[in-house]
User: Fold this.
Amino acid sequence: MFHGPARGCRIRRRRRGHAARLALPAGRSRPPPGDHHGPRLRRGQGPRPGALRAGFAEAGFVVLLHDHRNFGASDGLPRQDIDPWRQIADWRRAISYLESRPEVDAGRIGLWGTSYAGGHAIVLGATDRRLRAVVSQVPTISGFEQGRRRIAPEAVTKLEAAFDEDERAQARGEAPRTQAVVGDDPAVPASYRTQEAIDFYLQPVPEGVWSNEVTVRSNRLARIYEPGTWVTRVSPTPLLMVVAANDTVTLTDTGLTAFEQALEPKRLQLIPGGHFDPYTTEFDQASTGALDWFRRHLS
Assistant:
């Protein structure tokens, strides 16, 4: 059970709002460390935000859990449009918001990110020294390598033609085009086709919270996003990498290679299963490892 208030807040970015929930631990007489917990793709899915928020708050952490721009309760159009560098800029704003809170010790802020946002955690760990500890779970390391393995060579020309036509359409004043996030029909463009991805993304959620679509330009940006290039620069900020042993989405081997390239202080937590198991069957193991890391480096 969550033993501390969870407060809704809006982090302003120009004239748009960035929705977040701030969880405060009960019974603390001094400012506790802050944990900027990475956002999820949609409410009720993935990293089980309620459980993470509760566990970290009970351990004495302030937890800021936010929705990316264009997702969930945050503002922004088009909906479900993903620009990794804009998301990283929003995380910096969220860190600044935490620093401004009287309940937070600004010298003890950590960051947790998973999957695509696990890549963001690496970039931010390397470029924002306000962070005192970073957890990067099943992270995107190389968008190029992920795309190379996911898309058959004979399909690349058609995919790039779709990217180009979307750019031309936007130049004509049209809205960015969209496609499915997941799908098993080869005639319908989709970002992911594996059964584990379909089962995960199509879990039941309240109406209006999430839809199975993403902008085409988001896929182009994902294919050129290379957070692994920053991993050697995270040090001296402590880095925990949580890698799934059979990850076919963000790829086990690229995660392990990135960990080998990272400098101390660092720790590897190798967990069983695939990309989505840290959110389900291996949730307790993955979240406990993150909590232990933050206790060690933020206490």
Summary: DSSP finds nine helices and eleven strands in the chain. The chain has a mean pLDDT of 89. The longest helix spans residues 153-171. Residues 53 and 63 are 6 Å apart (CA to CA).
